[in-house]
Structures are given as structure tokens and as C-alpha cells.
Write a structure and sequence with these properties.
α3 packs parallel to α8 (199-214) and α7 packs parallel to α8 (199-214). The chain has nine helices and seven strands; from the N terminus they run ααβαβαβααβαβαβαβ. It is α/β, with parallel strands linked by helices. The radius of gyration is 28 Å and the shape is globular. The strands form two sheets. Strands 1, 2, 3, 5 and 6 form a five-stranded parallel sheet that branches. Bound molecules: nickel (II) ion. The site of nickel (II) ion has 5 residues, from β1.
């Protein structure tokens, strides 16, 4: 090849190589396989808190406790004060099973628009009855219907726990609908609202536990859910879930 053609040849080859480099598909950058914090976080189970309001009711709560105990699952119960008497054994069974206990007023009344004195008339006797049974400890609050106002925030003397998944289990008492609602709506860190005064809710809750554990979820108390996400529950603050940041 004559010298003048040889230069054109190399120039053309260089241009072709540059074009190939520019046009090749972009590959994502490779990430080193190390135990990064992200991977550790992904290895942790997804967490849910099952919560039950309006109990205890002997026929249904005892069946629920039995089913949870068989599965080694802890839940949270928001109790009505006037239903404590006569159900002391059930409440002791809750505590011994590692379940968390909270208050849901004495008479199941709205706490919104009440005076501080009327709020305390609902909360204090309920907490006193629980303390005489279980010893000196703190009891979180779930206000009926989720109604909260500024006076309640100031007077609650505990964290206020609402919810992020509500199958409205009081509505049609349809086990399969409730299960389908919960399973299709949950995400990691949710707090699920149910009522242990309906046998359908008990059946639905246990089915939910079985289905969602197979899907990689673990069930814990509200306190453990918040703690596991680094949330320190404060008095007078409202918590609806503990979704990952
Ligand atoms: Ni209620």
C-alpha cells in the first residue's frame, strides 16, 4: 500500500473504532458484592402490626389468642375499660403471650371535643384497672374512630396509635373480602386495624397471618414495630405506620 493511502487507512480505522465505542449499548455500572448497609436492610423481614380494638370479648378473643399462640405471633389489643372486669384471665393471657395492651377508653366514646377532665374519666380508670392486673406499666392509646384533637394530644399521657390498613371488618363480616383487602393493601411497616369482637375477624386475621408469613412478613407488636424502625414513640404524638424511610 502506498504511503498516502496507508494514512487514510489508519485514519478510517480509528474513526470506525470511535464510532463503535460511542454506539455500543450502555451497561449499568457494576456494583461490588459486599455487605453494604442496603443489603443488610433487605435481608430483614418485612414487619406488620396486627391491632385489635373493642375487646376483650370472651368467645372471640380467646379463640384469637389461641390461634396467635399456635402461630407464635404477637399482636396489640386496645381494650375497653368496662370490659376488663370478668375477663381478667384473658388479659393476663394476652400479657403472658407477649402481646401488647393499650386502652380504647372506658365506655368506647369519642375523645374529640371532650374536656381534659372527661378525657381522664375515660383513660385513667382503664389504665388503673390494667395496672392492678398487670403491674405498673405504660399503656398506649387508640382513640375510638381515630378521632383526635389538640386537647387529646395534650392529655393522652401516651403515644396515640392509629392505623394504615383498615379492612372495615365491622362492615359486612365477610372473611374472604377482609383477607383479600388486607393482603392486597399491606406494605412493610403497616399497622392493621381489626376488631376481636367478631368471629369473622378472628378467622380473617389468622388467615392473613398464614398468607403473609409465606410472603415474607413477620407480625410484631406496635412497640416492636416502631422500635425496629428506630422510632421512639412519644406521648401526645400520633403514629399510623412505620414504613421504611
Ligand atoms: Ni372501637
Amino acid at each position: 500500500m502506498a504511503a498516502r493511502y496507508r494514512n487514510w487507512f489508519w485514519l478510517g480505522l480509528a474513526a470506525l473504532a470511535a464510532a463503535v465505542l460511542l454506539l455500543r449499548p450502555q451497561e449499568p455500572p457494576k456494583i461490588a458484592q459486599v455487605d453494604s448497609p442496603v443489603e443488610v436492610a433487605e435481608a430483614q423481614p418485612k414487619l406488620l402490626a396486627l391491632t385489635f380494638d373493642d375487646g376483650p370479648r370472651r368467645s372471640t378473643t380467646s379463640k384469637l389468642l389461641e390461634g396467635l399462640d399456635q402461630r407464635g405471633v404477637q399482636a396489640t389489643f386496645f381494650l375497653i375499660g368496662k370490659q376488663i372486669e370478668g375477663n381478667e384471665d384473658l388479659i393476663l393471657q394476652m400479657a403472658e403471650g407477649g402481646h401488647q395492651i393499650g386502652v380504647h377508653t372506658f365506655d368506647h366514646v369519642e375523645l374529640r371535643d371532650l374536656s381534659p377532665a372527661d378525657i381522664h374519666r375515660q383513660l385513667d380508670p382503664t389504665r388503673e384497672a390494667l395496672r392492678s392486673l398487670l403491674g405498673d406499666r405504660e399503656f398506649i392509646l387508640r382513640p375510638p374512630y381515630g378521632f383526635v384533637d389538640d386537647t387529646l394530644l395534650q392529655q393522652a399521657d401516651s403515644p396515640i396509635i392509629l392505623w394504615s390498613v383498615d379492612p372495615e371488618d365491622w362492615h359486612d363480616r365477610d372473611v374472604q373480602r377482609e383477607v383479600a383487602h388486607i393482603v392486597s393493601h399491606v406494605q412493610d411497616g403497616d399497622i392493621i386495624l381489626m376488631h376481636d369482637i367478631f368471629s369473622e375477624s378472628v378467622d380473617a386475621a389468622l388467615q392473613v397471618v398464614d398468607q403473609l408469613r409465606q410472603a415474607g412478613y413477620a407480625f410484631v407488636t406496635v412497640d416492636d414495630l416502631l422500635l425496629s424502625r428506630g422510632i421512639t414513640a412519644e406521648n401526645g404524638a400520633v403514629y399510623r405506620h412505620a414504613h421504611p424511610q
